[in-house]
Design brief:
alpha/beta
Length: 507
């Protein structure tokens, strides 16, 4: 178990196995970032030739390990590049750089018993970024690995001049709670689909609620209850699987709350494509198709643990999209919760069907702000890649609010439009049902999906839709604080959004 402490002190005199400092790149050469002043003083004029001999430039993610030969109390100095010194001129870019550098450091010093982070930590945001970056950077999914666990630092010390302030302590606590939630979401996404089918996923949420000391309440609708209550989208997607679907509602209702944040997350625990079957390669990572549900549920747990005075109701429709004689066929018509009929054109566009049911249910509980998160369309990944999530909405203020929350915690969101022709297509393409589920054209897939979801959002409710198809699962190597596999993206954004709503409520 790794412990984190916030402490005032000199980076040259701290007694740990490793001390970590950040280095920026400038036209005149590498320069130590704030936090490394005592190290620079200890090395004096020898620092510049030392960096030159290492070929160290301060480029982002560049690392070098330097035995200190008693120049410092710590026997090892770890240098981490954070890129151009310009990043230190902007608060958001600085926190992003600190978070990323701490993540790189965590992977580099995994065999050290104690680590001191002498990264920029001049304010609560930088303290939080350092702790989050290190805790998330050291993440590894080892549930299925045999043999002894790898060594982890027993102690991580964050050096900061605000160490004795309430704001500094609160920032560290927030960092650890949010990091724990992100790690939970990553674990859920990384778990093989055979071990996290809808019933097992619902049980995992029950366990989280039970551990909350009464702060969280959970309701789970099984397949019979879903059928009786008319959740045709969830039933239609899940009926092809031997694993029955579920609808999980996780609620947090503190006494002082006057704002109500409602979250919806896509929980397709495995997506074979249904009768529009994917290729073997296309199915390889489809255990990740419940990343939206993992994010909204884990964020709700964190919001409750932090005790934020905001009411949160979270809906996670869970189903496995498989093939059988009872699987939904192209041309079938499903009746959604609330009575809207939908013609299914593509069984591999199943996420919007379960979300439609959940969005209608979400509208019934009176949200002040409604946000859904889903690994929804390959089109969003094609447009924005795997490090920027797409965001849509018909309320510009709500979209801007969510984007700003994401920016503050290092999760990039880019707004895409619901162009005016898309709702028309959704409503008119089917000749036999109220709506057409999938775009008949090959372009604009993410826009069409967002327009389809918008049909199930109550009028007047501020709503934002996050498409994390590219960002929810990292198919490449680790970078910064982000590992390969499940990323836990959107958890931090949603917690930050709830925090901002709480602050607005108090003011």
């Amino acid at each position: 178990m790794t412990s984190y402490t916030l402490r005032k002190g000199s980076s040259a005199k701290v007694r740990t196995d490793v001390v970590v400092i950040a280095v920026t790149s400038t036209a005149q050469g590498p320069v130590l970032a704030p936090g490394g002043e005592a190290v620079a003083s200890a090395y004096g004029r020898a620092l510049t030739p030392l960096l030159a001999s290492l070929g160290f430039t301060g480029t982002r993610d560049e690392v070098a390990q330097v035995p200190t030969a008693k120049t410092l109390r710590a026997p090892l100095l770890l240098l981490v590049g954070i890129g151009s010194a310009d990043v230190l001129g902007d608060a958001t870019r600085t926190t992003d750089a600190v978070r990323r550098a701490a993540g790189v450091a965590a992977r580099t010093v995994s065999n050290s018993a104690s680590v001191a982070l002498a990264l920029p930590a001049r304010d609560p945001a930088e303290v939080r970024a350092g702790a989050e970056g290190f805790e998330l950077g050291r993440y590894a999914f080892t549930a299925y690995k045999s043999g002894p666990a790898k060594d982890e630092p027993g102690e991580v010390v964050l050096l900061s001049e605000i160490a004795r302030s309430k704001a500094g302590a609160a920032a560290l606590e927030t960092a650890l709670v949010v990091s724990s939630a992100v790690r939970t979401a990553r674990d859920w996404v990384n778990t093989p689909a055979a071990d996290l089918a809808p019933p097992a996923f619902a049980d995992a949420v029950r366990a989280q609620a039970k551990a909350s000391s009464g702060k969280l309440r959970v309701e789970v609708l099984d397949e019979e209850q879903l059928r009786e209550r008319g959740f045709g989208g969830i039933i239609g997607v899940g009926r092809g699987s031997a694993q029955p679907p579920r609808l999980v509602t996780l609620s947090y209702r503190p006494r002082r709350a006057t704002r109500h944040l409602v979250l919806v997350g896509k929980g397709i625990t495995f997506d074979s494509g249904g009768l529009a079957i994917k290729t073997q390669l296309g199915m390889r990572t489809m255990k990740c198709d419940m990343g939206g549900a993992a994010a909204v549920l884990a964020a709700t747990v964190a919001i409750a643990e932090l005790g934020l005075p905001v009411r949160v109701t979270t809906f996670a429709p869970m189903a496995e999209n498989m093939i059988s004689g009872d699987a939904t066929r192209p041309g079938d018509v499903l009746t959604m919760y609330g009575g809207t009929t939908v013609e299914v054109l593509n069984p591999d566009a199943e996420g919007r069907l379960v979300l439609a049911d959940a969005l209608v249910a979400a509208g019934e509980v009176g949200p002040d702000l409604l946000v859904d998160v889903a690994t929804l369309t390959g089109a969003a990944e094609t447009a924005l890649g795997d490090r920027v999530s797409a965001i849509f909405g018909h309320d510009d203020a709500a979209v801007a609010r969510v984007r700003a929350a994401g920016a503050r915690v290092g999760e990039a969101l880019w707004q895409l439009p619901i162009s005016e022709e898309m709702p028309v297509k959704v409503r008119t393409y089917s000749k036999i049902a109220d709506l057409m589920q999938h775009n008949v054209d090959v372009y604009g897939g993410a826009l069409y999906a967002a327009a389809f979801l918008a049909e199930f959002v109550p009028d007047g409710v501020p709503w934002a839709h996050l498409d994390i198809a590219g960002t929810g699962f990292n198919r490449r190597g680790a970078y910064g604080h982000v590992p390969s596999g499940g990323t836990g993206v959107s958890v931090a954004t949603l917690v930050e959004l709830a925090t901002e709503l709480a602050e607005a409520q108090d003011s």
